[in-house]
Amino acid sequence: MINLQGKCGVILGIANDRSIAWGIAEAAHAAGARLALNYQNERLEKNVTELASRLPGTLAAPCDLTREDEVRDFFAKASSAFDGKLDFLVHAVAFAKKEELAGRFLDTTHEGFNLAMQVSVYTLLTATRHAEPLLNAAGGGSVVTLSYYGAQKVVKNYNIMGVAKAALEASVRYLAADLGPTGVRVNAISAGPIKTLAARGISGFSEILGTVAEKAPLRRNVELADVAGTAVWLASDAGRGVTGEVIYVDCGFNIMGV
Ligand code: NAD
Hints:
7 strands; seven-stranded parallel sheet; alpha/beta; binds nicotinamide-adenine-dinucleotide; globular
């Protein structure tokens, strides 16, 4: 088993116990890491503080990643909890309006386009910028974000989120180049479909699950633990030579042609 003993991590994006971020938090805690988790707003506070209490020693604090003041306060709290050092950051955050995740991409509104890009892409830069001094103080570290196959191929109804994920994957490469010289690695996990709150917004999501189970080489859908295992590996010293990559954890679905 991978060891994160003595390492500290920030995990952003828990809404409930089906969130990919929660799967990663459970696995990172089991591997020995100390964690700080955010909740986006008061509505999610109860869920996240309850989940955090299941992982002894875990900090939970508010942070809407589109609000610079909240991000600053959140990382200040993480910094004091972790003595100014951070070994890994997980960004599992995205949002697009439900009405943008159906119909034609061409009909995406300007407002919907900007909102999806701001929340699903720019927040990676915001979080990484605030984490950078703490990661450097730890002598380097790992940043991981979550992408999806719809960044590379057209997936019906994924629309603006596919374009946002493509921008996210490009951002991973630019950030990896920026931060590599100080030993900070930046990667994305392209996860197979999982029934979460965010996924429920995508029209026809159940059909996608059915197609993957039928066509993926492993003939099943991924579980939270599959994605979490790769995130923990990337956070650990075992992933120390990997940066700027998009790693598929999708039971092999992406390799299949006709
Ligand atoms: P989720 O709904 O559980 O998590 C999304 C999180 O984003 C929520 O916790 C929400 O609070 C947070 N968020 C949204 N706007 C925010 C803001 N302004 N500030 C702070 N937090 C904000 O769903 P999930 O499926 O676990 O999504 C996590 C990541 O995984 C997303 O990037 C998603 O696109 C990606 N992903 C999901 C799947 C899937 O099928 N579920 C597949 C591949 C990639």
